[in-house]
Amino acid sequence: MSVRLDEMDRKILAQLQEDAGQSLDDIARKVGSSKTPVWNRIRKLKEAGVIGRQTVILDPDALGLEACFFVLIRTSEHEADWQRKFLETLRNRPEVLEAHRLAGDIDYILKVRVQNARAYDTFYQALISEVRIYNVTALLSMEEIKSTTVLPV
């Protein structure tokens, strides 16, 4: 269910996506409002679930996590117990940044961030030791062309 947003809400959301750490005064100035109405709108957007948790974006290269793999998984298992165990395993692996269940020939795709190919192999070995997987294909990203958390508002 989507929430009705007016132009001011959209301007505020755009500012928060650009830099959630900026002051209310700065946001208010940039959107052409004053501090209290902006604060009230942000509070309402949080209550409505439009704004989730706030965090910071870290540079993976600066942290030595230079290898990004996209892992394509096919499974022959579709029982609830297998799926529960698989999802629990993914949630417990900090290397998995994203996991998606897909329609089509591939059942799942994972975005995995690690130091290098050897670290990926360690991740892979741990994954297949915890859950039974029919087929795994790993694709190494050679270059990140675009990566953003900014949604079009």
TrEMBL record:
Superkingdom assignment: Bacteria
Sorted UniProt keywords: DNA-binding, Transcription, Transcription regulation
PROSITE patterns per record: HTH_ASNC_1, HTH_ASNC_2
Molecular function GO labels: sequence-specific DNA binding
Xref: SMART domains: HTH_ASNC
GO terms under cellular component: cytosol
UniProt cross-references to InterPro entries, sorted A to Z: ArsR-like_HTH, AsnC-type_HTH_dom, Dimeric_a/b-barrel, Tscrpt_reg_AsnC-like, Tscrpt_reg_AsnC/Lrp_C, Tscrpt_reg_HTH_AsnC-type_CS, WH-like_DNA-bd_sf, WH_DNA-bd_sf
Biological process (GO), any one: response to amino acid
Entry annotated with the keyword Methyltransferase: no
A Pfam family recorded for this sequence: AsnC_trans_reg
Domain HTH asnC-type: 5-66
Protein name: Lrp/AsnC family transcriptional regulator
